[in-house]
Write a structure and sequence with these properties.
14% of the residues are buried. It is built from ten helices and eleven strands. A hairpin with a 2-residue loop joins strand 2 and strand 3 (38-43). 56% of the residues lie in helices and 21% in strands.
Length: 336
């Protein structure tokens, strides 16, 4: 009976020991195993059994990417401006063995390394450059930290500058500078707008003046063309009359009669003096005879016309080579 109880107790202890040394490693985690105080292996995710009293789990490491937000660091720029910079570091463990045996406190080591690297970078830059060069700062810190943490089994994926806090007086000066810059840009934009407006107005006036000049030129061209057309029409009529006269082959007496009729029409106006060529005076009698033949004797209207032809100051025809009243026989006569 006692032997049976002892045997059951031994079996129970063995089961408890086995269960106590069974380990399940979660996903994205690794366990560093030591045997008798020395590194044995690294367990990945899954079910593992360690040797009781000989093996032990030296370190449990997460291989997921980790984010650490460090406290703001006080730094001094090249132009002696003190300010605080807050950084965020993204890193990942790539070798659990090197992490376990390479550095005692990895987070503290990364924080201190970040602070010193940040001070070195900011110390070589002026304030204005610091405020506008976050990408340069991020990339420089990332390269420096990644190179330094390789021996710790840590991969620095990236470092981001979260916040930059200059002193209050610097912030006030920057605000004044920004305000002045905005006012300057506003003045420039207003001046550019006014300039463009004046240019557009001047161009509009120029186009308007050009259009007015073109209209005046077109008007003058049309008027000149009209006058030229009128002159051509008159000249064409005169030429047609001369051509018809030449085609009719008039006698000397008919030409003289037409000349006297022209002088008669001229005498009806305001003229007070008419020069009659001497060659027309010789045929005056013939012209009067031709008129008597054309106008009947019993016509009062014709006689009235003859009387009006005899009025002082008007041209008249005299038979037998006579001239106008008071005309002197010479190369030419004058009627008054």
């Amino acid at each position: 009976m006692l032997s049976t109880i002892f045997l059951l107790f031994i079996v129970f202890l063995l089961v408890m020991v086995v269960f106590a040394n069974v380990r399940i490693v979660p996903q994205a985690n690794v366990y560093v195993i030591e045997r008798l105080g020395t590194y044995l292996c690294t367990w990945g995710a899954g079910l593992h059994i360690k040797v009781p009293f000989i093996d032990r789990i030296a370190n449990k490491v997460s291989v997921k990417e980790q984010v650490v937000d460090f406290a703001p660091q006080s730094v001094i720029t090249k132009d002696n401006v003190t300010m605080k910079i807050d950084t965020v570091v993204f890193f990942q463990v790539t070798d659990a063995k090197m992490l376990t045996y390479g550095v005692e406190f990895p987070l503290a080591a990364i924080e201190n390394l970040t602070a010193t690297t940040l001070r070195n970078i900011i110390g070589s830059m002026e304030l204005d450059h610091t405020l506008t060069s976050r990408d340069h700062i991020n990339s420089t810190i990332t390269l420096t930290l990644d190179k330094a943490t390789d021996k710790w089994g840590i991969k620095i994926n990236r470092v981001e500058v979260k916040n930059i806090e200059p002193p209050k007086e610097i912030m006030a000066a920057m605000e004044r500078q920004m305000k002045a810059e905005r006012e300057k840009r506003e003045s420039i934009l207003l001046a550019e707008g006014e300039k463009q407006s004046k240019i557009l107005i001047a161009e509009g006036e120029k186009e308007s003046a050009i259009l007015r000049a073109d209209a005046v030129r077109e008007q003058k061209i049309r008027e000149a063309e009209g006058e030229a057309e009128a002159i051509r029409t008159v000249q064409q009529a005169v030429a047609d009359g001369i051509r018809m006269l030449n085609e009719a082959a008039p006698t000397r007496e008919v030409i003289a009669l037409r000349s006297l009729e022209s002088f008669e029409k001229a005498a009806d106006g305001q003229a007070t003096k008419i020069i009659i060529p001497s060659e027309i005076q010789g045929v005056a009698g013939l012209a009067a005879s031709l008129k008597e033949l054309v106008i009947p004797d019993g016509s009062e209207k014709a006689r009235g016309s003859d009387k009006s032809a005899q009025k002082p100051g008007s041209a008249s025809a005299f038979p037998n080579g006579g001239g106008a009243a008071g005309a002197q026989p010479a190369c030419g006569g004058t009627a008054k």
